[in-house]
Amino acid sequence: MNFQSLKIHRQLLKALKKLSLIEATDVQKKIIPLIQEGKDIMVSAQTGSGKTATFLLPTLHFMLEKDAPRSSTRSLILLPTRELAIQTQASLKQLASFTYIKSGLIIGGEAFKHQVATLRKNPEIIIATPGRLVEHIEKGTTDFNDLEILILDEADRMLDMGFADEMHAISKSCNKNRQNLLFSATLNHRGFSQIKTMFKDPKLIKIDSARQCPPQISQQIILCDNKKHKEELTAALINEEKVNKIFIFCKTRIQCEQLSNFLRYKKHRSAFIHGEIPQNDRKAVIAKFHSGSIEILVATDLAARGLDINDVEIVLNFNVASSGDEYIHRVGRTGRAGKKGKAISLISANDWNQMSSIERYLKIRFEKRVLKGLKAQYCGPKKIKNSGKAAGTKKNKTIKKKKK
């Protein structure tokens, strides 16, 4: 199904053609018509499924079909992180390039007074993170009395980050007669029972299983002995794969910095981002990764949340993900838009149980891989043979003694 059959405004079709986007994804085919009907919806969909355009296109279409020049902000898009907000605005600008529709960005780490000036201009769409937007609401610098569409993207992540109260405060500040759209990796989060009270008889839609990684992504593990071994494996893997873009996940900011410095020492174009780095510096690093001036981006989960970067060929888990859902999010940085990708995890003795837990969660088995000259001494947990039989024999002997 192409976008033209979805009854998208001609100015938006023009932008889609310029971006070489002709065919709609499964999420877009199923959800865009429901949004155009004005329904409240809550959608679970995998990362990389095209959900950003799924809510942007019908929102822009609605504004082009129903002009409201004297109203205040007409749509609010709420997102968990600054990076995701910035990328969503970039996508919006591309799709709205042949329209009059303007947007404003309200995120932490940027000058408050400049954001007040942005809000006074009454842009049709505001893209914001919860913490900073609540500050503006408390100071009375926002006007959502005319709001027609409220969009919560990556809602499960906002709840995980402790933004439940902020989400409710924002909802209360908005026009009650609005359409509500929610997108999330899962709809099973315990916080959604309260979020549903913000909606009007929402339709729950599950596009893809949250416990499923895209089939075009091959998934491997490499056993290792210690941190130093992991570093050597990382450098060797980059040399062997000869990729242009690789995303590496580390557990802590110190590990990010140390690994990136090690890779630079090995003559690789590497950089790192984490939550303690100033926003402008993070933006500069991400822009370099986008453009290809650096080939390796090392990041923590928090800093990498929501990053949508094209043509990432490999995701490397230097440290194993903390959960199955987090693993799916990490893996979703590659294999986007149907392209092939590869996810590789470095597994030491300390990582084995968590890796096994992720396998059980996803109901898969990771492919084992060995790099020439760097095979680990660690081979996985030792199996105790006939332990049950031995225990049973001992138990029987005890019973016999008691009988005597």
Percent in helix: 40-55%
Structural class from helices and strands? Answer: alpha/beta
Spans of at least 5 consecutive residues whose pLDDT stays below 50 are 387-395, 397-404
Rg value = 24 Å
In DSSP terms (H or I, runs of 4 or more residues), the helix count works out at: 16
How would you state the average pLDDT, rounded? 89
* Topology order in helix (H) and strand (E) letters: HHEHEHEHEHEHHEHEEHEHEHEHEHEHEH
What is the CATH superfamily label of the largest domain?
P-loop containing nucleotide triphosphate hydrolases
Distance between the termini: 80 Å
Strand order, main sheet: write it out.
Answer: 3-4-2-5-6-1-7
Shape: globular
Any idea how many domains? Answer: 2
Main sheet specs: 7 strands, parallel
- The CATH class of the largest domain turns out to be Alpha Beta
Beta-strand share of residues: 15-25%
| Number of beta strands | 14
CATH topology tier name of the largest domain = Rossmann fold
| CATH 2nd-level architecture of the largest domain | 3-Layer(aba) Sandwich
